[in-house]
Amino acid sequence: MIASDFDCENHAGVRAAALCAVCLKPICGDCAIEEERELFCEDLHRTFSLTHERVATFSSPFEADAVVTNLKSNGVEAQRFFFRDHLSVVLSGQRDSATVYVERGKLAAATRTLNALQLLS
Ligand SMILES: [Zn+2]
Ligand SMILES: [Zn+2]
Is residue 35 in a domain? Predict the structure, then answer.
């Protein structure tokens, strides 16, 4: 998935320059907020990135859901964000990909759990 395949979610007709590192929302250069060399769609997701770590980007929402469910049953709270939740993505016909995040400090536990379950490739 290349950002420039999509319109900015906030500006129809303007090509996206990046995908939000948290929620994968396509955003143009004017909308992107930078933090630690990553780009975000809004300040809420910039600050989210300071308190959470990305476990992985998965190639389907189904995989991301399975990961979140397995982490929760092993005591690690996780949140997932779907690429297909954004209108410009739906309009493009591409709906795969999802990110999973855990709180900072929980990444090692999450990775251990998922490796044991062979859910990380
Ligand atoms: Zn976002
Ligand atoms: Zn924009």
Answer: yes
Considering every ligand atom shown, identify the ligand nearest to the alpha carbon of residue 31 and give its number.
2
DSSP 16: P
In a domain, 121, yes or no: no
For 78-109, write each residue's pLDDT tens digit.
999 999 889 888 877 777 899 999 999 999 99
C-alpha to C-alpha distances, 45 to 22, 68, 119, nearest whole angstrom: 6, 19, 25
What distance in angstroms lies between residue 24's CA and the mean position of ligand 1's atoms? 6
Tally of domains in the chain: 1
CA of 40 to the centre of ligand 2 (A): 11
Domain enclosing residue 98, as ranges: 3-116
**Least distant ligand from the CA of 82:** 1
pLDDT digits (tens, 9 = 90+) for 8-63: 999 999 999 999 999 999 999 999 999 989 999 999 999 999 999 999 999 889 99
Strand 52-58 with 26-27, pairing: unpaired
pTM for the full model? Answer: 0.88
